[in-house]
Amino acid sequence: MHGPGRLRDVVREELVARQLEEQIVGRFPVGKRLRVLDVGMGRGAQALRLARAGHDVTGVEQDAASLAAVREAFAGEPEGIRERMRIIEGHAGDTGVHFLPGSFDVVLCHGVLMDDVEEPDALLAGVARMLAPGGMLSLLVRNGDAAAMRAGLSGDWAGALAAFCPPTSSYGLTRLTSTLAGIGAPLHTWYGVRVFTDTAADDAVLPDDLDAMLAVEDRAGRTDPYRGVAALLHLCGVRG
What we know:
Radius of gyration: 17 Å
Largest sheet: 7 strands, mixed
GO molecular function: S-adenosylmethionine-dependent methyltransferase activity
Order of helices and strands: HEHEHHEHEHEHHHEHE
Strand order of the largest sheet: 3-2-1-4-5-7-6
Domain Methyltransferase type: 37-138
GO biological process, one term: methylation
InterPro entries: Methyltransf_11, SAM-dependent_MTases_sf
Structural class: alpha/beta
Keywords: Methyltransferase, S-adenosyl-L-methionine, Transferase
């Protein structure tokens, strides 16, 4: 059921996929072939899932290693899926160069703001302009409200103390809610991702009870107060 991979990556990809499916099913007519833009698509896990589900997916990525990996993965898909996928080499901030405003029903921006980005609010505004009326923005960022959790749970007390004073560039729920409202895609719902598994070692193997673990993470990611201390926040905003 689940392929190999780092435990934290598997949890992230699986939970975000479930949350995305829940929001798409609840917002769009059943069977509608959506126009999806994946900005900073990485290795294309979500893009591939959505293409397999019948949607037209365009991915934008600038990292050469990620582009090679995603092209290799896509090449192994049946022709009917490959023809629904398009890959563009480019920067997340250049969406306005490649596309007209309002061109997509769903826009994914996952992990882009986890790197150092100049003028992140402006980048988000440009991404949101790609949404058609009623379209949905899916945003995945580090949880700036819980920056001390991983260090603290790992016993790194100096790191935890430092994390109580996060940089002004960090995003928490309050700031993100304001930002999404300001760019015309107000927050519709949000989830936490990796409440219990963020301290797993980089080389942690997938457990035998992976499905049970995912069920717990899935429940925690939509339940207060647990979701508020998740390592990542997954927010869905809707263009009015």
